[in-house]
Amino acid sequence: MNSRNYTDVIIAGKVYTLGGYESEEYLQRVAGYLNGKISELRGIDGYLRQTPDYQNVLLQLNVADDYFKVLGQLEELERQAETQANEIYSLKHQLVTVQLKLEEMKREFSEKQEKEQKR
Hints:
Elements lengths: L4 E7 L2 E7 L3 H19 L9 H67 L1
Antiparallel strand pairs: 1-2
Helix pairs in contact: 1-2
């Protein structure tokens, strides 16, 4: 198992020590994402007039919204990948069928040529 990493991050102007098995860069990236969301929300009229609890709920809703949007995109990409895999399988099957027919036609052609040469 990897060792636990700790790093100090700044979120909303406060320093927090985050710990986890992810890299320090990853933990900084997560903190940066939260700071971006907080900045985005602070740019909305009336956000700063809300109570801290309400602000936190809005932040959580925005993060959850991002999560579910990305999850939906992932599911769509997985469906597309499955469809493409099925299409590739079908095309490979068609290719093998055509190759077999071609080989059969070559064989028949060769047999006819041999018969013609014997006459």
